[in-house]
Structure to design on (252 residues):
């Protein structure tokens, strides 16, 4: 059954898990309409088009040519955070995923220019993380400023949802950490409720995630984790005087 908010499952023959349709060949996108369709395919390492990214499922150490803790950033935008975290944490292998072609190219250019060799950027959709990662394979997941979809009728489009937290539980190792920052308060404020309900106030089994810290205003009170790395949107919000909230959870 499709979970509320997750895009319609696209099972392949013999598969019952949802798959991102673009992983087949990304044929649907017209390169003439968006020049970044072609340039993202042609960029090469560290940019993986969807049709390449899923092939590394269970094989990320091979891509990075070493065993190291695997960290994921979802919705990297222009890649400031991915680059800066990769540089601050040479001990980790980082995979970033971003849906927009142009942003994957901008992000890949940043990684290349900085000489980062422990991060890659994949053009992929956040609803299909099982295509990319094995259960219990991630040590850290970051989501920074997910698209807010503030209108109530668009609420089903929000990433921060019960199905997404279920994905987080499945993919994190026990003891793994999920960190979320957002300038849209409901995204952070309803995480606690989603741990025990489906988002429409219907009770659901408790998810094995424990909140270890929360900040209602990172600029004022600090982040609920040490050494917060600023994101592009976080800096934009600071300029606008808009607060950014943060929450950290640990996989039990
Ligand atoms: C508001 S921007 C934040 C960018 C960056 N994380 C930051 O904090 O500066 C949200 C980003 O998520 C990306 N995004 C939205 N939906 C996505 C999805 N389903 N899968 C992957 N990325 C997505 C958008 O293209 C955009 O770059």
């Amino acid at each position: 059954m499709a979970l509320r908010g997750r895009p319609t499952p696209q099972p392949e023959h013999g598969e019952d898990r949802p798959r991102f349709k673009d992983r087949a060949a990304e044929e649907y996108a017209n390169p003439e309409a968006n020049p970044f369709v072609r340039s993202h395919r042609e960029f090469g390492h560290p940019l993986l088009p969807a049709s390449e990214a899923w092939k590394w499922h269970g094989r990320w150490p091979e891509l990075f040519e070493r065993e190291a803790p695997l960290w994921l950033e979802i919705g990297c935008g222009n890649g400031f955070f991915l680059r800066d975290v990769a540089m601050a944490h040479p001990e980790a292998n980082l995979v970033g995923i971003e849906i927009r072609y142009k942003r994957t190219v901008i992000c890949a250019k940043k990684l290349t220019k900085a000489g980062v060799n422990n991060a890659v950027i994949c053009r992929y959709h956040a609803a299909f993380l099982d295509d990319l990662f094995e259960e219990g394979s991630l040590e850290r997941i970051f989501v920074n400023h997910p698209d807010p979809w503030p209108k109530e009728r668009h609420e089903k489009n929000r990433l921060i949802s019960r199905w997404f937290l279920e994905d987080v539980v499945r993919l994190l190792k026990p003891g793994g950490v999920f960190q979320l920052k957002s300038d849209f308060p409901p995204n952070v404020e309803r995480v606690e409720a989603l741990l025990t309900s489906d988002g429409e106030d219907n009770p659901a089994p408790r998810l094995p995630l424990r909140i270890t810290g929360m900040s209602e205003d990172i600029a004022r009170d600090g982040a609920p984790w040490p050494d917060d790395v600023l994101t592009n949107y976080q800096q934009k919000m600071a300029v606008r005087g808009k607060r950014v909230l943060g929450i950290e959870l640990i996989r039990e």
The pocket of S-adenosylmethionine is lined by residues 74-77, 97-100, 103, 125-127, 144-147, 231-234 (CB under 6 Å). The longest strand covers residues 172-182.
